[in-house]
Amino acid sequence: MREQSRRGPDIVTLLLHRGRQTGPVDKQTEFVLRAIEERDVRFVRMWFTDVLGFLKSVAIAPAELEGAFAEGMGFDGSAIEGFARVYESDMLAHPDPATFQVLPWRDISPATARMFCDITMPDGSPSYADPRYVLKRALKKAADLGFTFYTHPEVEFFLFKDPVVPGEPPTPVDQSGYFDHTPQSLGTDFRRRAITMLEQMGISVEYSHHEGAPGQQEIDLRYADALSTADNLMTFRVVVKEVALSQGIHASFMPKPFTEHPGSGMHTHMSLFEGDTNAFYDASAEHHLSKIGRYFIAGLLRHAAEITAVTNQWTNSYKRLAGGGEAPSYICWGRNNRSALVRVPMYKPNKGSSARVELRSIDSAANPYLAFALILATGLAGIEGEYELPEGAEDDVWSLTERERQALGISPLPRNLDEAIRTMERSELVAETLGEHVFDFFLRNKRAEFEEYRRQVTPMELTRLLPVL
């Protein structure tokens, strides 16, 4: 006898029957319902993020999916960072059936699946506090101009030996360096298992390797539309941490855990397409970079300081940006110049579909929905305003003197979170893109973080000053 008969009615038959009574069931929803039955899924996790980019999750039984798809799942928005005030707390989470995936690290039977959700108010209007909606709104503006926005992130992170004790220096799992291949190393096995899980969830990986610092890894996701990429990044963080836990180690996306080693960035390649045509490519232009591509870069540069509080949202993010090496501190662009904020890669200069630009400031601890929305908004501002692109920087910007940088018109990025906040709060572009609620909450939260940070006595002060003062 099939186990299904012991469980009671066939849930997919039951829900499809109800769907015929209450309204049509679309193909994606029908696929989800059938997959749940065929793969013995008993728990479905509804995923969404708060304004700061932390993943939220609530599990429901398959029998509750009909109501979740039709009407949403109610929850208390006032309990979520940045979502709602107490007197307007009722919100609804609507699962997106296109994001359904079974969780491979929960591969025991019965299985567990997840779907990302869109958040609405009780009247059905989109929630002003939903980061996924912020990105959807920016993508719609691009679509109205005829563009689709694609992104390809290079995600860096660290692996540490457990236990990681708060306040004490972590211990990396290895002492390897950039591209090092160490047979039977923990990092190699980790990357293989993580990539296998990502691909089981429909997330394509392009490259993986050891990065420059001890214990530091990089896994690059394949190009996808920005919304899919943001969803994939939230899943990526969960997969990486789950695989690390299964191996008895700890994974962290903290931008700069070591003073003496490079930090973790998320260099993000991006392009705009008009249908099947890459809008950044022009075979007759210098370096094959079209006018639209030049305007886009000019927009990134002009508004870079305004969006830095979001692309680099933690006090620790600025330790990475101050660290030199391949982490940019100055607002400029270049071709194959890894000290520049924006780089135009030249991997395949004659292949139109490969034309792209790379933003190098963003770190892997950012909220990807808000970060991609703002990055896109700056580029579209450059296109709509036809911003003039300044001359590219050909030198190592870090090696120039302050006077030389000033002569070249190269300004610094904000040097700490406080500077970034002060620049962001004056930005009409950021306020318009994020919406008033997210804009105000984000600024309030980050001001509080920086004030707490200012009060901390650091190990450097204790080491240098306590013995002599």
What is the helix content? 25-40%
Radius of gyration: 23 Å
Second-tier CATH architecture of the largest domain = 2-Layer Sandwich
What's the CATH topology name of the largest domain?
Creatine Kinase, Chain A, domain 2
Q: What is the number of independent domains?
A: 2
Largest β sheet strand count, sense and barrel closure: 10 strands, mixed
Distance between the termini: 80 Å
| CATH evolutionary superfamily of the largest domain | Glutamine synthetase/guanido kinase, catalytic domain
In short:
The chain has 469 residues and is of the alpha+beta class.
Structural summary, described in words:
The protein is an alpha+beta fold. The chain has 16 helices and 18 strands. The protein has two domains: 3-125, Ubiquitin-like (UB roll); 136-464, 2-Layer Sandwich (Creatine Kinase, Chain A, domain 2). Strands 7, 8, 9, 10, 11, 12, 13, 15, 16 and 17 form a ten-stranded mixed sheet that branches. Strands 1, 2, 3, 4, 5 and 6 form a six-stranded mixed sheet that branches. Helix 9 runs antiparallel to helix 11 (368-385) and helix 11 (368-385) crosses helix 14 (428-434).
Give short descriptive properties of this protein.
20% strand; ten-stranded mixed sheet; Ubiquitin-like (UB roll); Creatine Kinase, Chain A, domain 2; 18 strands; 469 residues; 2 domains
List the helices and strands and how they pair.
Layout: H1 3-7, H2 11-22, H3 27-38, E1 41-49, E2 55-60, H4 65-71, E3 73-76, E4 90-95, E5 101-102, E6 111-120, H5 131-144, E7 148-161, H6 186-200, E8 205-210, E9 216-221, E10 224-225, H7 226-246, E11 249-252, E12 266-274, E13 277-278, H8 291-302, H9 304-311, H10 317-321, E14 330-331, E15 333-335, E16 342-344, E17 357-359, H11 368-385, H12 402-407, E18 411-412, H13 417-424, H14 428-434, H15 436-454, H16 459-464
Parallel strand pairs: 1-6, 15-16
Antiparallel strand pairs: 1-2, 3-4, 4-6, 5-6, 7-9, 7-10, 7-11, 7-12, 8-9, 12-13, 12-17, 14-18, 16-17
